[in-house]
Write a structure and sequence with these properties.
The protein is 57% helix and 14% strand. The protein contains 4 helices and 6 strands. The strands form 2 sheets. A 4-stranded antiparallel beta sheet has the order 3-4-6-5, with helices on one face. The protein has a two-stranded antiparallel ribbon with strand order 1-2. α1 runs parallel beside α4 (154-187).
């Protein structure tokens, strides 16, 4: 194995760590901050045509005002199912339909709910950091095996371990930054 193969390992490590960050950012987008955002509805499944479908496949979602979401079903017969799916979600939203669209007022968050959401968000980001660390552990094990099998030198292994640690630190900082930004939105700090 030559140095190009180590570069391939770093590319793979970077890709897997980026996937962990993308997952965390997606999870954080779904955390409600008091401002209306269609991202908070993304995980809602609507009972339609005999199966459960993501809300964005049965309706157009929009944010006409900072505290209001609107869902316009592609098929008006799904109005009730759409309203029910939103009401029974864990978001604590109370939708109402006017026959054409489902209006979803986004109430201001209580201090208690903000803290609860912050705790949930911290759990999500910790899972992201753990995923990044798991990629690091896997890469380090592979580097040690390459050294043991005499496919790379001790210098290459040391440089490889340093590079993997550098990538790990960068990705964990990205997760920390995303968490801090969301905390500021949520708790107003």
């Amino acid at each position: 194995m030559d140095v190009n193969d180590l570069k391939g390992l770093f590319v793979e490590v970077n890709k897997r760590m980026n996937a962990a960050i993308d997952h965390v950012k997606h999870e954080l987008a779904g955390v409600r901050t008091g401002r209306a955002s269609v991202a908070i509805l993304e995980h809602i499944q609507v009972e339609a045509y005999g199966s459960k479908m993501p809300i964005n496949q049965v309706a157009t979602l929009s944010v006409p005002e900072p505290t209001l979401l609107v869902a316009q079903p592609f098929d008006p017969s799904l109005m009730g199912a759409l309203e029910k799916a939103i009401r029974t979600s864990d978001l604590g939203l109370n939708p109402a339909n006017d026959g054409k669209v489902v209006r979803i007022p986004v109430p201001p968050l209580t201090e208690e709910r903000r803290k609860e959401l912050s705790k949930h968000m911290h759990k999500q980001t910790e899972e992201g950091r753990n995923a990044v660390r798991a990629v690091r552990r896997d890469a380090n094990d592979r580097l040690k095996k390459l050294l043991k099998d005499s496919k790379i030198s001790q210098d290459d292994e040391r440089k490889g371990l340093e590079e993997v640690q550098k990538l790990t630190d960068q990705h964990i900082k990205m997760i920390d930054d995303a968490q801090a930004k969301k905390d500021t939105e949520l708790l107003g700090r």
